[in-house]
Design brief:
Layout lengths: L1 H15 L3 E6 L4 E4 L1 H7 L3 H4 L4 H5 L9 H8 L3 E9 L5 E12 L5 E10 L1 H11 L3 E2 L2 E2 L3 H15 L4 E4 L6 H10 L8 E5 L5 H9 E2 L11 E2 L1 H4 L4 E5 L6 H13 L1 E2 L8 E2 L3 E6 L3 H6 L5 H7 L2 E4 L10 H16 L5 E2 L1 H9 L5 H15 L4 E2 L6 H4 L17 H16 L4 H8 L3 H10 L10
Parallel strand pairs: 8-15, 8-16, 9-12, 12-15, 17-18
Antiparallel strand pairs: 1-2, 1-5, 3-4, 4-5, 6-7, 10-11, 13-14
Length: about 450
Amino acid sequence: MNRARGERDYETILDCIADGVFTVDSEWRITSFNRAAERITGVPAADAIGRTCSEVFRADICDHGCAIRRTLRTGKDVIDQPARILDRDGRSHPISISTAVLREPHGVVLGAVETFRDLSQLEQLRREIKGQYVFEDIVGRSEAFQRIFSLLPDIAASESTVLIEGPSGSGKELIARAVHHLSPRKDHPCVVVNCGTLPPSLFESELFGYVKGAFTDAQTDKPGRIAAAHGGTVFFDEISELPLETQVKLLRLLQEREYEPLGSMKPRKADVRVVAATNKRLFELVSKERFRDDLYFRLAVVRMTIPPLRERREDVPHLVEHFIKRYNAKRGKQIEGVTPAVMELFMRHDFPGNVRELENLIEYGFVLCHRNRIDIRHLPEEYQGSHPAGGPLPFAGSGRSPLLRAEEDTIRSVLQENRGHLGKTAKQLGISRTTLWRRMTAFDLDASEFRD
């Protein structure tokens, strides 16, 4: 009677704890599983008890670095070891693990206990505070984008003209708008001038406006886009498309900070900040005499370069997550993400259309997907290739592609050279530690194998 009551009290206490708690026997099978563990993993206690902990947790340390295994082997407790687990729906959660050995009064080992704390909210808070990979709706965790994020506040605070270079679809307009929104001019308009679609004959009137009587149909004064942006920012998109004859007019605006509406003899002050973007290298156009050198140097007081998506593949998972959230809100759906097969395809694809192409693929997937994850069959046919619908891409085992075997050999070689040091290995490979860890997990590589 007392023993049964004690067990009930024990279960009640465990269920009142905010951290997840479970125990295992000597064969690694779960013997108890509290309510917090159910909440964090999404697995009911009835389904967890009797199964091995690795089946339930699917943690990144289960195969290598298991905390319970180390505790049982050494007899020493593990305190606050970081790890990531996959819940029942395949979502990743950062956790902090602590373990201890369970013994009988006479010292016989019965198993072990593990407590774990869900750090998801803390991680999200850190991202929001530090802007780790989202900044003004720009998503990027790569080194290149972290550098841009660190410079943006100072660039925005200045009045300097900014030139943003990068391939089509890479997010140049987002950067331009971030410069405006972070600047002292943020409460005034940001006016976009698309140089590629504006006919040369209309450039002057569209940009500077005109006065009544300037030409036959000018019945009233019409302010141009410079006047519309007064106190704010003018963003010249695809500036490389400006014909040479119109470049002179823009140069005067930048030099004199004044302009004359068409038909007017009286100059007006231009209280605007100029940001320009191009998908071409302007300096190369200067050398070919297709762009004025004096205008180039006026524009490129501050020059920012956005790399193509293929050069910052570590940003792809974060971009996918960002677009999934965006289209869930737009479409009223509850899609949780993409399947591993789709993510592998995205990680290998060169994305000639860059971020815009990736967003279009996610939007296409939202149209066809009626389940919780976008799969290969939900993508356009040209992206499916020879991979069977719903089937995994070749990645594991002896049948994987020569490219992936070469990738594994390269990572293994660099790990060996750096004696398992992840930071040095990631730097030498030119990838982030997160990407390195993910690839090592996929290839079943353990850093400890390469240490002396």
